[in-house]
C-alpha cells in the first residue's frame, strides 16, 4: 500500500491520496523492476494476450466513452452559457428595481371603457393614468403653472419655495418628456385627456408648442397687482375671522354658514393659483387636506355645491395637478348623486350629503330650471376623470329630457320644472335672469366642452338666442341701450337682472367658436348696457336689478332702480363679460371699464379690517349701507375675472383649452380647437 501519508509526514499539509493496487503490482514493490519500459511492455503483452473480440469490445467502449464525453461537454457548455447569462440578467433586474419602484401607482384610477355612446352626447372621454404618478401630477396637458415667478410681491421665502417647487416639478417633467410653457398649458406628446373616440388634437391657436415654450413670461402689470392686493385684503378678513367657514361677515368680524363646508376657501382655491398666491394656496390646501370633510349631516343645494365645490375642486386639480383635489371632488360628487333619484330623473334641489338622502324645497316639488341644467360641465368632467359614467349619464339625461320638453317659447325656457312629472311649471314667464340664466350658458359651454359634437345642445342654444332676439330685446331711452327684458304671459317687462350680464360674454364665446357673427355684434351692444348699469349709478356700482326707460322723458336716465333692488352683492357677471370681450377684441375700453369697477368696489365695499362687503344702496355714495357679508363668488369669480381682464396673456387660461363653469372655475375642453 502506498500512502501519501509518508510523503506528507514532514509536511504541514494533512490531505493525502490513498491508492489500492492489485496483487501483481504488490509483488513488484521493492524487488521487482518498476521502470516505465517494463510497465509499457507488460501492458502491451497483456493487450496481445486478449482475444480479438475482447480487444474490439474494449476499443468500442473507448470510442463510445469518447463520443459521450464530447456530447456532454457541448451540453455543459450551453448550460453554463445560460447560467452565466441568467446571472447577468439577474444583476440587471436588481439594478432596475429601484428605478421601477419610483413609478408610484397612478394618481388616477385605471380608465374603464365607456360602454356606449348615449344618443347625440359624446362618449365619456377617459383620462389615461399618467405613466409616472406624483402627488403633483394630474392631467398634465392642462396643468398651468401659477405665475409665481412673475409676481413682484414675492418674498425671498416665496422665491425659494417656488424654486424648490420648480425643481421638483422639473424632475418629474423631465422623466415624462413633457413640453412646458411657463404660463400656458403643459403639453405632452401623448395626451392624457383623451376622449375614447377621438384623440385630443392640439388647438390651432395659440401658436405652436415650440413658440409657446420659447415665449417670455408676460409680467404682471399694475392693475393685476391691484387685484392681487384686493384679493389679499379680502383673504385677510376671511382668514382672521371666518377661516374654514362658508362666508365672511367682515363688519361683525365673524362668519355665516350655509353648508358648513368652507365655501369661500374652496371657491377661492383656483383664483389663488391663477394669481400666484402660493403661500395662501398652500395654507388653504392644508385645510382641504386636514379639515374638509363631506361626511356631514347637512343639506346642501345641489346646484350651488356643484358649481362652487365640485367645480372649484376639479379646476384646482387641473391647474395644480394635485390629486388631493380630485379625491375630494370624487367624494362630493358621489355624495350628490342621490339628488337624481326622482320619478322623472330631474334632480331634487337639496341633498343631505351625510345621510345620502335628497328632497325638493319644503314648499314645492319643483326644481329651478337653471339649477338642474347648470351642473353638467362638472359632472361630465368628473366622469371623464374617474372613468365612472354614472355622473355624466345622470346629467345628460336631464339635458335630453329638457331638449324635447314642451312649454318653451322659441327656445326660451320657463323657470321651474317638476321633479315628479318632469314637466315645466309656472309656464309663460321667460327671463335670462335668475332661475334660467345659466341654462343658456351651459348649452353653449357643454357643446364646447364636448368638442362641438353634441348638436342638440347647439340647436337649443341657437334657438334660444333667436328667442331672445325675438321676444326679449328692446332699446332704452334716451341712450338707446339694447337690453334683455322679461316676458310674462305675453307682456314685456323692461326689467333686467345684473345676472343677465353673463350673456355678452357667452355670446362672444359662441362667436369665437364659429357661431353667427351677429352674436358678437349683440355681445358688443349688451356689454355697453351692462357697463351703463354701473356708470349711470351714483356709486358706479350696479344694483341687483334695473328697469330701463322705454320712453324719453326730460332729465331721465336710461336706468331706473327700485328701492328693493338697490343692493350690490359683489357679483361678477359684468366683469366676466368684460374679460371675454377684451380677450376676443383686444379693445382696451373693456379694461378701462373693469378698472373703474374695481376702484368703485374699493371705494364703497372695502372693509378696513379685512374683507369686502355687499352693500344695500348703490345710490348713496355717502352711505352705501354695508350688509356685512362677503359672498364666496367675490373671490371665486369677480376678482379672478378682474385679474384675467387686466392680463394681456392669452395663455393665462387659454379660452381654446378651458371652459369656465358658471362659478368661474376653468375646466378642460375635451377636444380643444
Ligand atoms: C354665482 O354663484 C354664479 O355665477 C351663478 O351662476 C349665478 N350667481 C352667482 C354670481 O352672481
TrEMBL record:
Residues 183-218 are annotated as: Disordered. Ca(2+) binds at residue 662. Pathway: Protein modification; protein glycosylation. GO terms for molecular function: calcium ion binding; mannosyl-oligosaccharide 1,2-alpha-mannosidase activity. Belongs to the glycosyl hydrolase 47 family. GO terms for biological process: carbohydrate metabolic process; ERAD pathway. InterPro entries: 6hp_glycosidase-like_sf, Glyco_hydro_47, Glycosyl_Hydrolase_47, Seven-hairpin_glycosidases. Keywords: Calcium, Disulfide bond, Endoplasmic reticulum, Glycosidase, Hydrolase, Membrane, Metal-binding, Signal-anchor, Transmembrane, Transmembrane helix. Its cofactor is Ca(2+). The chain crosses the membrane at residues 56-76. GO terms for cellular component: endoplasmic reticulum membrane. SUPFAM superfamilies: Seven-hairpin glycosidases. Involved in glycoprotein quality control targeting of misfolded glycoproteins for degradation. It primarily trims a single alpha-1,2-linked mannose residue from Man(9)GlcNAc(2) to produce Man(8)GlcNAc(2), but at high enzyme concentrations, as found in the ER quality control compartment (ERQC), it further trims the carbohydrates to Man(5-6)GlcNAc(2). It is a single-pass type II membrane protein. Its EC number is 3.2.1.-. This is alpha-1,2-Mannosidase. It catalyses: N(4)-(alpha-D-Man-(1->2)-alpha-D-Man-(1->2)-alpha-D-Man-(1->3)-[alpha-D-Man-(1->3)-[alpha-D-Man-(1->2)-alpha-D-Man-(1->6)]-alpha-D-Man-(1->6)]-beta-D-Man-(1->4)-beta-D-GlcNAc-(1->4)-beta-D-GlcNAc)-L-asparaginyl-[protein] (N-glucan mannose isomer 8A1,2,3B1,3) + 3 H2O = N(4)-(alpha-D-Man-(1->3)-[alpha-D-Man-(1->3)-[alpha-D-Man-(1->6)]-alpha-D-Man-(1->6)]-beta-D-Man-(1->4)-beta-D-GlcNAc-(1->4)-beta-D-GlcNAc)-L-asparaginyl-[protein] (N-glucan mannose isomer 5A1,2) + 3 beta-D-mannose; N(4)-(alpha-D-Man-(1->2)-alpha-D-Man-(1->2)-alpha-D-Man-(1->3)-[alpha-D-Man-(1->2)-alpha-D-Man-(1->3)-[alpha-D-Man-(1->2)-alpha-D-Man-(1->6)]-alpha-D-Man-(1->6)]-beta-D-Man-(1->4)-beta-D-GlcNAc-(1->4)-beta-D-GlcNAc)-L-asparaginyl-[protein] (N-glucan mannose isomer 9A1,2,3B1,2,3) + 4 H2O = N(4)-(alpha-D-Man-(1->3)-[alpha-D-Man-(1->3)-[alpha-D-Man-(1->6)]-alpha-D-Man-(1->6)]-beta-D-Man-(1->4)-beta-D-GlcNAc-(1->4)-beta-D-GlcNAc)-L-asparaginyl-[protein] (N-glucan mannose isomer 5A1,2) + 4 beta-D-mannose. The gene is Man1b1. Residues 190-200 have a biased composition (Polar residues). It is found in: Endoplasmic reticulum membrane. It comes from the Eukaryota. It holds the Pfam family Glyco_hydro_47. Residues 201-216 have a biased composition (Basic and acidic residues). Disulfide bonds join 501-530. The active site is at 304 (proton donor), 437, 544 (proton donor), 573.
Amino acid at each position: 500500500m502506498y500512502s501519501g501519508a509518508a510523503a506528507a509526514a514532514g509536511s504541514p499539509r494533512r490531505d493525502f491520496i490513498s491508492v489500492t493496487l492489485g496483487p501483481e503490482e504488490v509483488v513488484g514493490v521493492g524487488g521487482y523492476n518498476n521502470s516505465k519500459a517494463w510497465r509499457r511492455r507488460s501492458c502491451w503483452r497483456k493487450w496481445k494476450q486478449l482475444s480479438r473480440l475482447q480487444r474490439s469490445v474494449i476499443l468500442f467502449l473507448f470510442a463510445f466513452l469518447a463520443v459521450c464525453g464530447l456530447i456532454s461537454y457541448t451540453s455543459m457548455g450551453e448550460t453554463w452559457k445560460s447560467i452565466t447569462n441568467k446571472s447577468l440578467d439577474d444583476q440587471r433586474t436588481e439594478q432596475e428595481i429601484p428605478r421601477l419602484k419610483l413609478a408610484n401607482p397612478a394618481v388616477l384610477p385605471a380608465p374603464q371603457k365607456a360602454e356606449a355612446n348615449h344618443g347625440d352626447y359624446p362618449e365619456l372621454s377617459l383620462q389615461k393614468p399618467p405613466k409616472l404618478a406624483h402627488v403633483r401630477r394630474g392631467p398634465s396637458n392642462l396643468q398651468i403653472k401659477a405665475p409665481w415667478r412673475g409676481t413682484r410681491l414675492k418674498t425671498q421665502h416665496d422665491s425659494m419655495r417656488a424654486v424648490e417647487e420648480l425643481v421638483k416639478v422639473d424632475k418629474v417633467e423631465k422623466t415624462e418628456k413633457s413640453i412646458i410653457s411657463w404660463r400656458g398649458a403643459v403639453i405632452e406628446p401623448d395626451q392624457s385627456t383623451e376622449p375614447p373616440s377621438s384623440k385630443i388634437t392640439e388647438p390651432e391657436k395659440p401658436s405652436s408648442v415650440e413658440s409657446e415654450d420659447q415665449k417670455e413670461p408676460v409680467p404682471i402689470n399694475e392693475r393685476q397687482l391691484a387685484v392681487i392686493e384686493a384679493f389679499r385684503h379680502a383673504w385677510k378678513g376671511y382668514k382672521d375671522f371666518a377661516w374654514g367657514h362658508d362666508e365672511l361677515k367682515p363688519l361683525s368680524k365673524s362668519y355665516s354658514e350655509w353648508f358648513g363646508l368652507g365655501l369661500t376657501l374652496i371657491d377661492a382655491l383656483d383664483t389663488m393659483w391663477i394669481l400666484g398666491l402660493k403661500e395662501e394656496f398652500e395654507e388653504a390646501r392644508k385645510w382641504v387636506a386636514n379639515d374638509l370633510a363631506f361626511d356631514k349631516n347637512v343639506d346642501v343645494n345641489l346646484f350651488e355645491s356643484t358649481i362652487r365645490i365640485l367645480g372649484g375642486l376639479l379646476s384646482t386639480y387641473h391647474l395644480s395637478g394635485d390629486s388631493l383635489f380630485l379625491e375630494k371632488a370624487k367624494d362630493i360628487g358621489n355624495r350628490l348623486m342621490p339628488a337624481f333619484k326622482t320619478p322623472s330623473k330631474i334632480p331634487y334641489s337639496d341633498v343631505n350629503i351625510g345621510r345620502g338622502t335628497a328632497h325638493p324645497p319644503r314648499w314645492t316639488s319643483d326644481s329651478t330650471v337653471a339649477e338642474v341644467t347648470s351642473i353638467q360641465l362638472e359632472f361630465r368632467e368628473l366622469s371623464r376623470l374617474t372613468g365612472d359614467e354614472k355622473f355624466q349619464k345622470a346629467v345628460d339625461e336631464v339635458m335630453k329630457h329638457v331638449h324635447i320638453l314642451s312649454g318653451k317659447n322659441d327656445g326660451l325656457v320657463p323657470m321651474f320644472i317638476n321633479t315628479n312629472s318632469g314637466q315645466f311649471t309656472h309656464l309663460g314667464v321667460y327671463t335670462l335672469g335668475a332661475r334660467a340664466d345659466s341654462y343658456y350658458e351651459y348649452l353653449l359651454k357643454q357643446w364646447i366642452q364636448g368638442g362641438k359634437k353634441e348638436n342638440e345642445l347647439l340647436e337649443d342654444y341657437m334657438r334660444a338666442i333667436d328667442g331672445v332676439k325675438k321676444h326679449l330685446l328692446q332699446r332704452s331711452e334716451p341712450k338707446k341701450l339694447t337690453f334683455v327684458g322679461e316676458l310674462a304671459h305675453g307682456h314685456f317687462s323692461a326689467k333686467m337682472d345684473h345676472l343677465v350680464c353673463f350673456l355678452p360674454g357667452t355670446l362672444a364665446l359662441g362667436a369665437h367658436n364659429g357661431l353667427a357673427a351677429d352674436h358678437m355684434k349683440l355681445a358688443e351692444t349688451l356689454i355697453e348696457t351692462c357697463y351703463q348699469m354701473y356708470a349711470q349709478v351714483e356709486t358706479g356700482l350696479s344694483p341687483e336689478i334695473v328697469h330701463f326707460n322705454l320712453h324719453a322723458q326730460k332729465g331721465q336716465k336710461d336706468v331706473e332702480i327700485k328701492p328693493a333692488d338697490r343692493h350690490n352683492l359683489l357679483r361678477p357677471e359684468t366683469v366676466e363679460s368684460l374679460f371675454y370681450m377684451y380677450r376676443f377684441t383686444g379693445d382696451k375700453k373693456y379694461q378701462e371699464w373693469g378698472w373703474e369697477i374695481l376702484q368703485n368696489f374699493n371705494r364703497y365695499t372695502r372693509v378696513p379690517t379685512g374683507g369686502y362687503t355687499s352693500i344695500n344702496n348703490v345710490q348713496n355714495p355717502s352711505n352705501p349701507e354695508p350688509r356685512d357679508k362677503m359672498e364666496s363668488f367675490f373671490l371665486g369669480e369677480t376678482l379672478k375675472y378682474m385679474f384675467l381682464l387686466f392680463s394681456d396673456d392669452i395663455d393665462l387660461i387659454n379660452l381654446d383649452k378651458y371652459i369656465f363653469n358658471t362659478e368661474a372655475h376653468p375646466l378642460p375642453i375635451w377636444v380643444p380647437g
